[in-house]
Write a structure and sequence with these properties.
Layout lengths: L7 H13 L4 H9 L16 H26 L3 E12 H7 L5 E8 L4 E6 L1 H11 L15 H13 L1 H8 L6 E8 L13 E11 L2 E10 H4 L8 H5 L8 H12 L5 E4 L7 H5 L17 E5 L2 E11 L2 E9 L8
Antiparallel strand pairs: 1-5, 2-3, 2-4, 3-6, 5-6, 7-8, 8-9, 9-10
Helix pairs in contact: 3-7
Length: 331
């Protein structure tokens, strides 16, 4: 806990009060020793650790990127979605915080129990609707007067978005999200008890000319079976995946038949243009390569092995002596 720093004038006043008897130093010590009590609200029970909150934030950062790509392709306009905050609050508090009339998508997440809620602000929802109907993506608010066609268009858009939720959650659980209900009034929606702890992920959203928030509400009952998978240990460990024998064999065969260029550099030197112009038959050019030193075998112009020259079956060949290590002076 951070300590309070006193100014010089405050220090002088404190010393003056002690010296004059207005304040007792022993009483100050006693107050410091007394245990401080923090009020705990049982209605706001914290059921998720900071570690688990960070894991949920990472999952939905990925979800935000997937949604950005999905909505960009569907609406053919600029889309920017990012995680603004991840909080745990009572369900009743979340319901009170959203508009009285808004867009509510309720998803089941089999095999997990319970349902999760995606609340989309009217500005964003109608910006999407305007784009789907050929507009510029301007926002409006006519949530109370949705036609059947508008309801169907929005439902289909958010129903297809469930694929992105499945992919984002694949790191902690294999789920099959399905859009079960589409509502506009949160008062008619009672997913869990009012005091139940829920995770609320708020996404800053800009679509075309419209901007607003998308809130994802996940009850504790949904996350309870996968809470162990939200730990740092789960994220850091590398899970061994079974190798596909058919794919492995195909990849091996393709690599084995790949062509590479192998060549050996016998040596090199440098001459000037005048010497080059006066070269004649039987002239000898001295190279900087000693016959006692090994040569370099290059694979696709990359030095790989030290070799020595020789003959094999009446052909000039080289014998590999050792593999070239990184950091060798000759590399």
């Amino acid at each position: 806990m951070a300590e309070e720093v006193l100014s010089q004038s405050e220090i002088d006043s404190l010393l003056s009060a002690i010296s004059s008897g207005e304040m007792d130093a022993d009483e100050l010590k006693q107050e410091k020793k007394e245990q401080k009590v923090r009020v705990y609200d049982f209605k706001r029970a914290l059921r998720f650790s900071k570690d688990q909150i960070r894991s949920l934030s990472r999952i939905h950062e990925n979800f935000a990127r997937l949604l950005t790509t999905y909505f960009s392709a569907q609406l053919r306009t600029h889309v920017d979605i990012s995680v603004a905050s991840v909080d745990q609050v009572p369900y009743e508090e979340f319901i009170r915080s959203i508009p009285k009339m808004t867009i509510l998508n309720i998803y089941s997440v089999h095999p997990l129990d319970g349902r999760l809620l995606m609340e989309v602000s009217p500005n964003v929802a109608y910006g999407m609707l305007d784009r789907m109907l050929g507009g510029k993506g301007s926002s409006m608010n006519k949530v109370e007067n949705l036609t059947e066609i508008e309801t169907m268009l929005m439902s289909q858009l958010f129903e297809k978005a469930a694929v992105n939720l499945r992919e984002a959650w694949s790191s902690i659980s294999e789920i099959d999200p399905v859009l079960e209900d589409f509502e506009v009034n949160p008062q008619f929606l009672q997913m869990v008890s009012p005091n139940e702890t829920v995770i609320v992920i708020s996404l800053n959203t800009t679509i075309g000319e419209a901007s607003g928030m998308i809130n994802i509400c996940i009850p504790h009952i949904v996350l309870e079976p996968v809470i162990p998978n939200l730990s740092v240990h789960h994220w850091m460990q590398t899970e061994a995946k079974e190798r596909d024998p058919e794919a492995y064999e195909k990849l091996t065969n393709n690599i084995q038949h790949a062509n590479v260029e192998a060549k050996v550099l016998l040596g090199e030197t440098s001459i000037n243009v005048q010497q080059l112009l006066h070269l004649d038959k039987d002239d000898v050019i001295a190279l900087n390569q000693s016959i006692e030193d090994p040569l370099l075998l290059e694979i696709n112009d990359e030095p790989k092995f030290y070799v020595q020259p020789g003959n094999y079956k009446n052909k000039r060949s080289v014998q590999v002596l050792e593999e070239m290590k990184r950091g060798d002076d000759d590399g």
